[in-house]
Structure formats: C-alpha cells, structure tokens
Design a protein that fits this description.
single chain, alpha/beta, Rossmann fold, 8-stranded mixed β-sheet, 11 strands, binds S-adenosylmethionine
C-alpha cells in the first residue's frame, strides 16, 4: 500500500494513499529535510548558543559546537531521514546528540531499507540504524559514539516524558490531511516538551499555528521555506 516515490531533487519519499500525502515535499525530500530541520532547526539553535558565548558567530560556532549537548524531539519519525541527517552532522562536528522520535505508525524495516537514504550519511551510521531499528522502541540505543536514539511508538497526543528538549522537529502530515496534529491542544501538549530557549521548527506556517505558539509564550518567526515553499516557521520558547 505504501509506495516509494522520487521527489524533484532525486531523493525518495513515501506516498501514503490512505492519507493522500507524501512523507516529504515533492520538490525534494533531502533538500526539505536539510533546509527545515538541520539548517533552520539544529544549526540555528547551535549558532544561537555559540553567539550567546562570544562573537563572531562564524568563528565560534565550529569550536563551541564540539562537545555541546543537544536534545531533539521529532514529531513524526517516519523514515528517519531527519534523524539520519542530524546525527551525521552531529557526529561529524563532535556534538553530543540525544534524539527521540515519536511515531504512531512505524514503518517496516523493509520499507526503511528501500528509501536509499544510505547515500546521504556515513555507512557506519546507516548500518547501525538499520541493524537496531526494530529495537529502538524498546529502549534508547547509542547508535554511534555520543549519538543516542529512541523511538516512542505512540501518538503524539499520548506521548509522555519527564524530559524537555532543546529542539522540536514538528514533521506531521499537513493540516489539510491531519488537522488534529495542528490544533491548539496538540501544539500545547508538544510545547510542554520544549526547554525555555528551545527552538520549534516546522515546514508549514499558518495563522492558527502562529497564534497558538504565541499564546504558549513563544516568539514566532517566519523563515525562508525549503525550495517550492515560500516560508516556514521557527519559534523560540521564551522563559
Ligand atoms: C510527514 S510524515 C513524517 C516524515 C518523517 N519525518 C520522515 O522524514 O520520514 C508524518 C509522520 O507522522 C506520523 N504520524 C501520524 N499521526 C501521528 C500521531 N498522532 N502521532 C505521531 N506520529 C504520527 C506518520 O505515521 C508519519 O510517519
């Protein structure tokens, strides 16, 4: 029923006929994941940390990032592309990553293997991810040195944790297909897991989402969208 399809940048995504939507942008799965989550989420958060220590940012970010701890919560883990790209970046830069993915409808290992995402990350990371994928929902696993992953196989709405995260990657299906993921109650539940000063990013931007985030004490910014989309949303939780 699920089908692997190619997007405009040559990278694969999955089409879910029941939902009527792809897991990623048709304009490019890889470029969307890199732009929205790795660059506008993770790298932006790390640059903000570096800037708060000492300028200039371009010189400090590389040095201060190594040894930095960062925790990420992803809503809609799916194929794991956002995790793989983020983990590859963190391992390369010496950043200590603690990543939790929430996924209500986990993909089979066979489906994940068919994405061909091995070509975008180190072979060691890919092999560890594939080898451990089916055990990641039982307990967190250190897939690479200083790079830990756990998948919570539950609906976002029932997810519970004592942990708060530095960054939230909000990668739910679009509001037209899954409005319950974007309503005030669900966004409020999600923001509970964000640390003060933490960053929330998503590929979409709507008036309702902006209002909900502002009411929850977040500073909301429009950022340039991934190719094919004019804008995306980034919000910072104010203390
Ligand atoms: C747009 S896709 C995410 C793509 C994913 N980040 C990737 O890179 O492959 C949305 C994901 O949200 C999951 N999902 C749907 N309803 C959910 C819910 N209530 N709670 C958690 N995950 C949900 C879907 O199964 C799907 O994997």
């Amino acid at each position: 029923m699920l089908e692997i399809v190619k997007t405009a940048d040559g990278s694969n995504t999955i089409f879910n006929p029941l939902v009527g939507e792809n897991y990623h942008s048709k304009h490019g799965a890889l470029q969307e994941s890199r732009h929205v989550f790795v660059n506008s989420g993770l790298r932006c958060f790390l640059d903000g940390k570096a800037r708060s220590k000492s300028p200039p940012i371009e010189e400090t970010s590389k040095e201060t990032a190594a040894g930095t701890n960062v925790s990420i919560l992803e809503v809609g883990f799916g194929t794991g592309l956002n995790f793989l790209l983020s983990a590859d970046f963190c391992v390369d830069k010496g950043i200590i990553l603690d990543y939790t993915g929430i996924e209500a409808y986990p993909l089979s290992l066979e489906m994940i293997s068919q994405t061909d995402y091995d070509q975008y990350v180190s072979s060691e990371l890919w092999q560890k991810f594939i080898a451990d994928y089916e055990r990641l929902s039982i307990s967190p696993i250190e897939l690479m040195p200083r790079c830990k992953l756990q998948i919570a196989n539950c609906k976002l709405q029932t997810f519970q944790s004592d942990q708060q995260y530095d960054i939230i990657y909000f990668d739910a299906f679009a509001v037209a297909h899954q409005p319950e993921m974007w309503n005030e109650a669900t966004i409020s539940h999600t923001i509970r897991f964000l640390k003060p000063g933490g960053v929330f990013v998503t590929y979409a931007i709507t008036g309702n989402l902006k209002r909900a985030l502002k009411a929850l004490g977040c500073k909301v910014e429009k950022a340039p969208g991934a190719p094919g989309k004019r804008e995306m949303l980034r919000a910072v939780k104010i203390v």
